[in-house]
């Protein structure tokens, strides 16, 4: 059961993602969506979906609660994404509603999710330790739910490193800084999460902010900035990537980026190629409805349009 090497994706705050597409949003009136989609969601699930579509054996580990949780489990199983779920005794797994309307940014309504018990945390950690024995890489993704201490990701990173398994972290404060202190192999904040750390993403501050992010504990750091592109820094210096300005459905683009960065690392690609691939994958995902969904032809076209250059210190 545990002898097939996997990429373990920890999804503490799994959700039912409901997406509606409207021609126009008129508050206080009745709407009939032009398109709708229900998917298992949350940053970790989105990243796992991308990795599976790239042909890698990703597996999700997370919490579920109530009828909504059972629906999430069924949706993910229908996609063929394996998972280990720890059932919580009370509450319901969260629902995240995204409404696309017109050409502007979507409207998002995200529930907080159920509280995690101490027993639930212990059970999740026990499964985590068993999976490490046959694990190639660990991804730790998303905001920690109620009841989970801010140091949870840091503890899981240390356990993984003790088993010689590399880790990637994509989280927000306060779990982000606590996780950074455990020195993850990859960290990928976005512009909002950089601001939470007190770090700017203005071009004049790129080099200094990336250097500080590495000082905080990130061994290899990526920063996604939406339509403004993405950054990367490691021992060899800093890079900036500009991709095609895709319009569509931005939810989950950062999760696709992280999956692309991990995919390139496992393939042994050089830093420029990895950054270009992750940027292109994020751009391709914007063109498809559903977080973590992309089409191969969109990825190929985006790869041809990405430009990578060095960031001067």
Low-confidence stretches: none
Termini separation (Å)?
A: 49 Å
- Helical content, roughly? 25-40%
CATH domain class: Alpha Beta
CATH topology: UDP-N-acetylmuramoyl-L-alanine:D-glutamate ligase
H/E topology pattern: EEEHEHEEEHEHEHEHHEEEHHHE
How many strand units? 14
Question: At CATH's second level, what is the architecture?
Answer: 3-Layer(aba) Sandwich
Mean pLDDT: 95
Based on secondary structure, the structural category is alpha/beta
The Rg value, from CA coordinates, equals: 19 Å
Please outline the major beta sheet. 10 strands, mixed
Cross-sheet strand order for the largest sheet = 5-4-1-8-9-10-11-12-13-14
Question: What does this protein structure show overall?
Answer:
By secondary structure, the chain is α/β, with parallel strands linked by helices. It is built from 10 helices and 14 strands. The protein has a 10-stranded mixed beta sheet, sandwiched between helices. It has a 4-stranded mixed beta sheet with strand order 3-2-6-7. α5 links the parallel β9 and β10. α1 packs across α8 and α8 runs antiparallel to α9. It starts with 5 loop residues before the first strand and ends with a strand.
């Amino acid at each position: 059961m545990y002898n097939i090497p996997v990429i373990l994706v920890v999804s503490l705050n799994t959700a039912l993602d409901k997406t509606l597409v409207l021609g126009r949003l008129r508050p206080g009136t009745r709407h009939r969506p032009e398109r709708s989609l229900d998917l298992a969601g949350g940053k970790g699930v989105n990243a796992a979906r991308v990795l599976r579509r790239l042909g890698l054996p990703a597996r999700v580990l997370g919490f579920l609660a109530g009828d909504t949780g059972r629906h999430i489990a069924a949706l993910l199983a229908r996609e063929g994404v394996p998972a280990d779920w720890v059932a919580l005794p009370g509450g319901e797994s969260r629902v995240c509603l995204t409404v696309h309307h017109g050409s502007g940014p979507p409207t998002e309504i995200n529930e907080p999710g159920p509280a995690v018990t101490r027993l639930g945390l212990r059970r999740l950690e026990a499964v985590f330790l068993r999976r490490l024995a046959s694990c190639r890489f660990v991804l730790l993704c998303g905001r920690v739910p109620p009841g989970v201490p801010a140091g949870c990701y840091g503890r899981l990173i240390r356990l993984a490193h003790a088993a010689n398994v590399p880790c990637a972290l994509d989280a927000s404060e306060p779990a982000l800084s606590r996780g950074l202190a455990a020195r993850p192999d990859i960290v990928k904040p976005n512009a909002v999460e950089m601001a939470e750390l007190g770090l700017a993403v203005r071009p004049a501050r790129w080099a200094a902010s990336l250097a500080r992010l590495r000082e905080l504990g990130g061994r290899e750091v990526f920063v996604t900035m939406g339509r403004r592109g993405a950054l990367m820094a490691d021992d060899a210096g800093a890079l900036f990537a500009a991709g095609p300005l895709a319009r569509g459905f931005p939810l989950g683009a950062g999760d696709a980026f992280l999956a692309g960065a991990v995919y390139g690392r496992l393939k042994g690609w050089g830093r420029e190629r990895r950054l270009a691939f992750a940027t292109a994958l994020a751009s391709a995902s914007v063109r498809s409805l559903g977080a973590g969904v992309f089409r191969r032809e969109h990825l190929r076209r985006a790869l041809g349009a990405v430009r990578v250059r060095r960031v001067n210190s």
